[in-house]
Every structure is written in structure tokens, then in C-alpha cells.
Amino acid sequence: MRRAVEKMKANNKRSTFVLQLTAMVDMFTIIIVFLLKSYSTSAVNITPQKGLSLPESVSIVHPVEGIKMVVSLEGIFVEDKKVVTLIDGKIDFTETEAQDRDFIKKLFKELDSHAQKSMDIQKENKEFQFEGKIVMQADKKLNYKLLKKVMYTSSLAGYADLKMATLSLE
Hints:
Blueprint: H1 2-11, H2 21-38, E1 56-57, E2 67-71, E3 75-78, E4 81-87, E5 90-91, H3 105-124, E6 133-138, H4 144-156, E7 161-164, E8 167-168
Parallel strand pairs: 1-8, 2-6, 6-7
Antiparallel strand pairs: 2-3, 3-4, 4-5
Helix pairs in contact: 3-4
């Protein structure tokens, strides 16, 4: 390589520029590694339901994969299926257990069926692990008592790891 450069200099006395590829390849490698490390994508897609106003937060945690649950003023949805009907964000007392007013019967039944499916898959596929994760979208106008009932019922169905979807303030 050096002989070729010296030969080029001898042939062209006015040329003073010599291209050094090694430094440029190193520079591009560093740039590519930096861009790959700083670029993050998430396979989880969370789209708010129409008419749902999510609470705002400054906390930044990447979304996790789990059962999607929406608690709006009209009802409780599990994986886009309406499970419990709410009237202006309030649950009818017939939807709860008589001995335990925090227990929502239909929600438990739906979440329990999802947990049972996951357990059956886990028996067949050893690589799959049931982790009991829920990603919950809840309207910010809802009463905390209702959300507490939803979280209580979810934990009894095996979904104790609950993540709340919020809007980022940044």
C-alpha cells in the first residue's frame, strides 16, 4: 500500500491528499455501534381505546408483554372483549360477590380462563413461562375504589404483576 502511495506521489507532485481508509472504517464502526445501542424498539403496541383519557406520568418504563385490560367509564375489557359493564365508571353490586364486595365475578372468570390457557401452553412448551402480567389502561376519571377492586380480582386470578399504561409528559 505504501509503495502505491509513494508511486502516486512521484507521478503527481501536486497531490498532497492521501485517503486513509482504516481510520474512516473505525469511525463508521463506532457510529454504527452508538446508533444501535441508543435505538430501542418495543414489540409491545399499546393503543388507547377511543374516548379513554389516560393519566400522565414522568416515569419512563418500557412496556411489557402481558394481557391487555382496559377499564373505561363504559366497562372493563380484557383483550378487547367487554367483560363487565360499568355505568358512568361505577360497578353494579350484582357484578361483585355477596361475601366479598371487592371481588368482581365476571372479571375473575375471564382472567382465570386466560391463565388456564397459559398454564396449558406451559405444560406443552417448557420455554414458555406464565408470569401473570397485565398491562392496564384506566381512565383518569375513574374512582380508585373501582381500580382497587380490579387489581384485587386480577391478583386472585393469578395476575399479580400489573403495569399501568400512562401518557408521557416529556
